[in-house]
Please model this.
Amino acid sequence: MLELSKEEIETVQKVADSILNEFENTPENLIPILQNLQDRLQYVPGPAMEKVAESLDIPEVDVFEVVTFYNQFRLYPPGENQFKVCMGTACYMVGGEIALDSFERRLDIKEGETTEDRKYGLERVACVGCCSMAPVVVVNDKIEGHVTPTRVDGLLFSHDEDKKENNTDEKSDDKPKEGEEK
Amino acid sequence: MSSTSIEQKFQNIKKEAEENIASLDDKTVIYVGSASCGLAAGAKEVKDAFINKLDENNIEAEVKEVGCMGFCYAEPIIFISRPGFPTLVYGYVDEGLVESLIKNYLIEDDPCFEFALVATEVNDFFPTFADFPRGVYEEKQILNECGFIDPEEIDHYVSRDGYQALSKALSSSPVEILEEVKNANLRGRGGAGFPAGKKWEACLSNDGDERYVICNADEGDPGAFMDRIMLESNPHMVIEGMVLCAYTIGAKKGYLYIRSEYPQAVKKVQKAIEQAKEKNLLGDSILGSDFSFDLEVFQGAGAFVCGEATALIESMEGGSGIPQTRPPRMAQSGYKDKPTVLNNVKTFAYVPLIINNGSDWFKSTGTEGNPGTAVFALVGKINNTGLVEVPMGTTLRTLIYDVGEGIPGEKEFKAVQIGGPSGGCLPESALDIPIDFDSLGEAGAMMGSGGLVVMDENDCMVTVAKYFLEFTQQESCGKCTFCRLGTKQMLDILTDITKGEGTLESLELLEELAVDIKDGSLCNLGKTAPNPVLTTLRYFKDEYLAHINDGVCPAKMCQDLIVYYIVPERCSKLCSACVGSCPTEAIYTRDDGLKAIEQEKCVKCDNCLKACPPEYYAVEKLSPPEKLKELEEKEGN
Model:
């Protein structure tokens, strides 16, 4: 389980409290509560699960079971940019796995992981229902169709570029690196 | 309240809707197909381009978002309704086409027929849907309005006879409605085909006031997206069906269980519920009657097994989606242990049509035991991918070759995978069976939710079977040992075969396991999991044997059994398209200027083969890999 700092734990608990306040505390609301938590925090941290268990008066282990049973819930925070590679039938048959391979190779992580700098996360999803554009990758919330390995490079490149444009501070950091290579 | 005043109240709502819609008639309106598939193809950019360009040119026109017409292959799709011109549908729209439509059509009055796909109504200038093979075979009932109405605007639905059935039903008794649905022999569209009327009746026969109506929109089958399109394009039709069901069985509360992977559908349904409540078509004393019904969305959390009724209920109650033994059936003891009707999205969508037009009308389409239409998602190696609605009993051949216009690239048809992980792969010889719930079961497949993946000569059937096993193995809830461990064992065997490490004994074991898992699993996920393996073994055993005996993948798909090779005689010194396309720099230029592949670096991604210009066509796949050595030796000599 992820180690959280004291402040982080406090924030998580605060968010959990405010969400729990919005719901009637019955077990039927467990999944909607967890979904709301993940919406706000991007993942479901341990201290939040404890709060939920306490509020709904159910054992913590039951909350953990539900979180781990469903594909939607994450136990770790995702990357700043999250790539979801679709592995539906149509996508798989026309190269979904090849696209996933390319991401793994380029980002040097496996599916379900996040890069060390937390910039990119990689996931495999069952089917996003855009089979006619297979193979499909969901980048954050945008669906990208017909993804070949070269397109994977393009997608990574364009997200790199976005970052640089938005963040002028980083540009100065990049320069010495170029010098080093020379 | 008397039936006349219910009818009166509804007529007022309808009149108001018609007036609102009529105000669009004398305007130019551009409708952009903005369901998820359209958005994926760039519908939002197209919409923004229209808005900007209209503004730049000071043209007065409205831009509206609609759902999906089902022509996924031509997305993004738009249609323009302009007074004095036929309404034309345009496909493959990009910003360039937007510009030329504005300039040529909206300014200079030339409707650009060369870019139009079809006209929506009969006219003197351009063919309509009925003039194309697809239009001839298709018979749209529940998809009829999809793509033509704004799902976020209730008036569009109401003005097209929406909620008419509800007003009619409220003036009749629940028993009459039940009889109509039973007479229609409406079979559940979720896949199993259980008669909806019987389900409703069973629910009604239980005591107590608390009953629930739940719509199963947990469309988890990879390759199927009909429920998503239905909810994104015409949510009110499903809602109306649910209200009718609730009225019939006396339920006061209902839920739409939608998978969270469909955020667009969730958003549109929530909006539709709000609007229906505002118009008093949902909520307390609907249309002034003494019938009240409240509806909510419950978002699934991503588990394939939750499509199974008991698992779905478990998850709604806050637990893991683990199926339970039946009986008691849902109709006796469902959500919160109360009598519950759980039907698929499409099943509910048919109900308003049946109430409006009568059960005899419904039975006039389809076959005797399988009345009505069937909705399929045509995907894979087929020219016209998309969503189609054809009468039950249409043959697979008609569906693939006439409606879908066949296989692209003059490739040979190999198989059609129907019904998702629960279904099976059918060969050429099965193309002439009429598709309905019963015939598909006999052939070893299953209607399932209607996902239909067409495969050609380049698709390996062992890989297909492996893919589905991987899916069911991952999605197994783990309750039954056979399903949990048996599918894992089967997957291991299949993986070995795709690596050329299979044996004839393991093939026997594979078959035995398949039968045992079918017998030893509680729910339909386990019971049907072996279907893709059983059908591929039944129809494509040769392919398994080629992998095992000769280490050959006949379709040249299994990565461990193929190598890529650049044929020197066909390669050109003048071209280096493949070099640039290779993601791992595995392609190098030989001393003689031709290209070759460094096998250790090659990741078999297929890029070089696609990049090689058709006039050279120099990249080839070889199976088994030993062939490469033979060729190189030959070349060396």
About this structure: Chain B has a mean pLDDT of 93. The CA atoms of residues 208 and 338 of chain B lie 8 Å apart. Chain B has 26 helices and 18 strands. The longest strand of chain B covers residues 373-380.
